[in-house]
Design a protein that fits this description.
- The complex is a heterotrimer of chains A (261), B (375) and C (309).
- Chain A has 261 residues and is α/β, with parallel strands linked by helices.
- Chain A has a domain of 159 residues: Rossmann fold (3-Layer(aba) Sandwich).
- Helices cover 38% and strands 25% of the residues of chain A.
- In chain A, the strands form two sheets. Chain A has a six-stranded mixed β-sheet with strand order 6-7-8-3-9-10, with helices on both faces.
- In chain A, helix 3 packs parallel to helix 6 and helix 5 packs across helix 6.
- The longest helix of chain A is centred in the middle third of the chain and has 20 residues.
- Chain A starts with 8 loop residues before the first strand and ends with a helix.
- Chain B has one domain: ABC transporter involved in vitamin B12 uptake, BtuC, CATH 1.10.3470.
- Chain B is globular and about 80 Å long.
- By secondary structure, chain C is mainly alpha-helical.
- Chain C has a single domain, classed as ABC transporter involved in vitamin B12 uptake, BtuC.
- Chain C is 73% helix and 3% strand.
- Chain C contains twelve helices and two strands.
- Chain C has a two-stranded antiparallel sheet with strand order 1-2.
- In chain C, helix 1 runs antiparallel to helix 8, helix 2 crosses helix 8 and helix 3 packs across helix 8.
- Chains B and C meet through helix 6, helix 11 and helix 13 of B and helix 4, helix 10 and helix 12 of C.
- Chain A: This is ABC transporter ATP-binding protein.
- Chain A: GO terms for molecular function: ATP binding; ATP hydrolysis activity.
- Chain A: Pfam families: ABC_tran (PF00005), BCA_ABC_TP_C (PF12399).
- Chain A: Involved in beta-(1-->2)glucan export. Transmembrane domains (TMD) form a pore in the inner membrane and the ATP-binding domain (NBD) is responsible for energy generation.
- Chain A: Keywords: ATP-binding, Nucleotide-binding, Transport.
């Protein structure tokens, strides 16, 4: 497997705590994501993994802590700032735009790259049409890459779950992100679909050099795919390191086997 | 001629992105436009039934075109952007009364400054477009709450617009140029020296407006902005996380929608009614427009036309058919029957086919494409 | 300087008419709590209940029934009509639309509004019918304190009294009965409720029936005040801003919201309306609701919802 070329830190989360009323979702969690790596976040259900991703892309605002992304430190991210800064995301329960075709969903991912204003779009002539076609080219490349040519004009609500997940990945890729957050990209898939998805993830990381942070339950997948793994349990980070280190960690074994502490 | 697309290959993305990628559809549209732009005026000129008495033009085609335009405006907001509006009538009124003021000359005395703002009467076309612009500005103002509130709450916010402006145009006599009856008359419809007076001229004027706006809006909704609107409609949180700004997407939807509704309002007042009262733009109008959009198809430009046609034609049929059958209904019964039919149809379509008649038509086309095989 | 006596009189009058808004708003809250449906048809239900009551009353009296018997039978008849309506709505509209988004459900209730308005007027007639169930004359209070005293309508007092009983009854229903508890469970998560064996269509029927009966009560008070006529539906629409102000899910919110709107619009009309042309009552409630939405979107008593993804 290809190792990341640099040890430069892309994103650093420091001492983040997040509470909803009395429920503490995250407690003083710190970890980093290095440029070019595949970083896994694992943990039992309710460990705070999704909350962590939500903090990173600004959907939740932490009560304490700091987030450093591309060298800028702030107490919280804003969704718009995150997306403009190059953080893309897929969701645990597919969050596609149900009324739109697969193509339009992925095209929507190009929003930030499109410049023509309302009046040009209204005329759809000259520069506006050229822009639309240019982005269509880029999107078609992604469609080819994900092997979903046949379904590009199908409304996504009609697609099976596995394909929806793929379209969602396509939408995230269309943003040409620097950091791609994948929330359980393989949940509910059969073996074949999981293998496809793993291949896509590795390809994205290899070809585009995109940094990836993923949450996944399938340990075999996590151990094979990722360069480094962080383990959360009850909102606390209990281990961090290479897959092999994490596998041997007693705290992790306890957390997964449910030993009381 | 069979409805087949076999052998029609698209070799560029531009061709693939055309509004009607299938040739037969383009031909059908061409025929339709031909009838609308050439056929109808010719028939009217030669006085061939049913155009002899101008009834069809004045009572059906004219309101159909204008209300279809308004329905397109409502569809942008409700169908494409998913923001419910119960105040479309008010925005028609804003378009109508601002166009009226601008078309008859604006005079605002600022007595404490010993100064007055005066704008001479503007040409009608400019007045109508500026009427739309005024509606757009007010639409943006009333769209601002939509950034914090969603769905049902917004329904009440738009109701506020409806009732507030009902009252404004009824009570603030400045808007009606102090007409004692509260009813006002449109200025002469003078377009670049051309006086638009006869029904066929009015029809052509509205047809041009509607065609132009339909094309422009169709371009918008299949472009980047349209995708942003639909993204906000389908899943606003995910939309925000891929970089769509809800502020921009929602407010442009409110602006474009209100602009078109405002222009439709000005046309309704100037071209269709001629003289009017605030009652012409009450909440009943708002609900009627909403119905057109639901029945015709949420998120479909063609649906706006279908919905408008249906809502206008149903009462006429209800009047005509029982009379032909020898059991004429009273006007009251017809109104109540209309209520029941519209209501039932709304419920039926929401349950069975939320995308309205437009979707039913495209399913029909799909079937026709495969005919005579079931799939 | 405005006389205190006049102010009090306007305030009391406003609070009392606010009670009427609260009555309709209660029906909304009931349905919203149990099914997440924002019921635009509540006004139409008031009209239907009112028409069914007043027309059957007229008929029964004409047939020679004594007034007390006619009232009991008339109210019973109207209640049956509301039960049938509730069943039809659940069976043919809300039931099939289960799991749809709130906006679709809302629009379907606009459809229901039209069906009910059309059907009610087609069956029972579309004129204004006077209803006399409660005394409509007035008391003059504190005549020794203020010149002329403070005028209070007996009908308004009756309205307040009835609203009080209704709220107490609903509170007991929600907190103490099995159906009430099931109802709150359905409101939280109807799939989960279904999976533990709560018959969801039965619950929804009960809710719509309750809302229908609340509409009937509102119709008796409003009908006495204004006569039963189509314009009642517009007044009932004001329950929407009342709800926004009070908070969509809160029964006390509906009451307080109604009182605020009732008092606010009367005071605004009397003391402000004269300066800007009158008729403020027409929009005051809505603009007030708009202001509340901007400051506190969940309303005074509503719960804040945390969004998840």
């Amino acid at each position: 497997m290809r190792m990341p070329d640099t040890s430069e830190t892309l994103l650093q989360v420091e001492g983040v705590s997040l509470a909803f009323g009395g429920v503490k979702a995250l407690r003083d969690v710190s970890f980093d994501i290095r440029k070019g790596e595949i970083r896994a976040i694992i943990g039992p259900n309710g460990a705070g993994k999704t909350s962590m991703l939500n903090v990173i892309n600004g959907f939740y605002h932490p009560n304490h802590g700091a987030i450093t992304f591309k060298g800028r430190t702030r107490a919280e991210m804003q969704p718009f700032e995150a997306s403009r800064g190059g953080i893309a995301r897929t969701f645990q329960n597919v969050a596609l735009f149900k009324g739109m075709s697969a193509l339009d969903n992925i095209m929507a991912g190009r929003t930030l790259k499109m410049r023509r204003g309302l009046l040009w779009q209204m005329l759809r002539y000259g520069p506006a049409l050229a822009e639309e076609i240019e982005h269509r080219h880029r999107v078609e490349e992604i469609i080819d890459f994900l092997e979903i040519e046949a379904i590009r004009k199908v409304p996504v609500a009609r697609l099976p779950y596995g394909l929806q997940k793929r379209v969602e990945l396509g939408r995230a890729l269309a943003m040409e992100p620097d950091l791609l957050l994948l929330d359980e990209p393989m949940a509910g898939m059969n073996l074949e679909e999981k293998e496809d998805m793993s291949r896509f993830i590795i390809d994205v990381n290899n070809h585009y050099g995109t940094t990836i942070a993923l949450i996944e339950h399938d340990m075999a997948v996590v151990m094979d795919l990722s360069h480094r793994v962080a383990v959360l349990d009850h909102g606390v980070k209990i281990a961090d390191g290479t897959p092999n280190e994490v596998k041997k960690n007693q705290g992790v074994i306890d957390a997964y086997l449910g030993i009381a502490h | 001629m069979l409805y087949r697309e076999a052998g029609q290959f698209k070799t560029t993305y531009a061709e693939d992105m055309a509004i009607f990628p299938i040739r037969q559809d383009r031909i059908a549209l061409g025929i339709l436009l031909g009838i609308a732009f050439i056929g109808v005026p010719l028939l009217a000129d030669f006085d061939i039934w049913p155009f002899g008495s101008d009834y069809l033009l004045r009572a059906i085609l004219l309101p159909f075109l204008i209300l279809a335009l308004a329905a397109i405006g409502v569809n942008i907001l409700v169908g494409y952007c998913g923001q419910i509006s119960l105040g479309s009538g008010a925005f028609m009124a804003i378009g109508a009364y601002s166009a009226y003021k601008l078309g008859t000359g604006v005079h605002i005395p600022l007595t404490w400054l010993d100064f007055a703002i005066s704008i001479p009467p503007l040409p009608v076309l400019l007045a109508i477009l500026l009427g739309g612009l005024t509606a757009a500005v007010v639409g943006i103002l009333f769209g601002i709450p939509s950034l914090r509130i969603k769905g049902l709450y917004l329904a009440v916010a738009t109701l506020a617009a409806q009732f507030f402006f009902d009252w404004v145009f009824l009570r603030v006599s400045w808007f009606t140029n102090y007409a004692p009856s509260g009813s006002v008359n449109a200025p002469t419809l003078d377009f670049f020296g051309l006086n638009v007076g006869t029904p066929i001229e009015r029809y052509m004027l509205c047809l041009i407006f509607v065609t132009a706006f339909a094309v422009l809006v169709k371009n918008l909704v299949r472009g980047n902005l349209g995708r942003q609107w639909m993204a906000i409609r389908d899943m606003d949180i995910a939309a925000e996380l891929i970089g769509i700004r809800p502020l921009y997407a929602k407010l442009t939807a409110f602006a474009v929608s209100s602009f078109i509704i405002g222009v439709a309002g000005a046309l309704w007042a100037f071209v269709y009614l001629g003289s009017w009262e605030p009652l012409a733009f009450s909440i009943d109008r708002s609900l009627q427009l909403l119905f057109m959009v639901i029945i015709g198809g949420l998120g479909s430009i063609m649906g706006s036309f279908v919905g408008a046609a249906f809502i206008l034609i149903l009462p006429i049929l209800l009047n005509l058919i029982p009379t032909q059958l020898g059991v004429p209904l009273s006007t009251e019964t017809i109104t109540h029957l209309e209520f029941i039919i519209f209501g039932s149809l709304i419920c039926f379509l929401l349950i069975k086919e939320p995308h309205g008649f437009a979707r039913l038509i495209s399913i029909g086309k799909e079937k026709l494409r495969l005919w005579p095989f079931p799939y | 300087m405005i006389a205190l006596g006049q102010f009090l009189e306007v305030l009391i009058g406003g609070l009392m008419s606010g009670v009427l808004y609260s009555l309709v708003a209660l029906g909304f809250v009931l349905i919203f709590k149990a099914s997440g449906v924002f019921n635009f048809a509540q006004g139409a239900m008031v009209l239907l209940a009112g028409l069914a009551l007043v027309r059957s009353l007229d008929l029964l009296v004409a047939w020679g029934f004594p007034v007390w018997a006619a009232i009991i039978l008339g109210i019973g008849f109207a209640a049956v009509i509301m039960a049938i309506t509730a069943w039809l709505i659940e069976r043919f509209v809300i039931g099939p639309l289960v799991n749809q988004d709130a906006l679709t459900l809302f629009m379907s209730t606009i459809g229901v509004t039209f069906i009910l308005e059309g059907a009610a007027q087609m069956i029972f007639g579309s004129d204004a019918y006077p209803l006399r169930l409660f005394p409509t004359d007035a008391w003059f209070l504190f005549e020794n304190l203020f010149p002329g005293g403070i005028l209070v309508n007996k009908l308004d007092v009756w309205g307040g009294f009835i609203a009080g009983i209704l709220v107490a009854g609903l509170a007991i229903f929600f907190e103490r009965t099995k159906t009430g508890r099931a109802l709150r469970a359905v409101a939280d998560d109807h799939l989960a409720a279904q999976s533990v064996g709560i018959p969801i269509s039965w619950i929804w029927f009960v809710v719509w029936l309750a809302a229908g009966l609340v509409a009937l009560v509102a119709a008796t008070v409003w009908g006495t005040k204004l006569g039963v006529q189509f314009s009642i539906t517009f007044l009932a629409l004001k329950a929407l801003p009342v709800l926004i102000i009070g908070g969509l899910t809160s029964i006390p919110g509906a009451i307080v919201g109604g009182l605020i709107v009732g008092a606010g619009e009367k005071i605004a009309e009397v003391f402000l309306g004269s300066h800007i042309g009158g008729g403020i009552e027409y929009w005051f409630a809505y603009v007030l609701a708009l202001a509340v939405l901007l400051v506190r979107p969940q309303g005074l008593f509503g719960e804040r919802i945390i969004e998840r993804i």
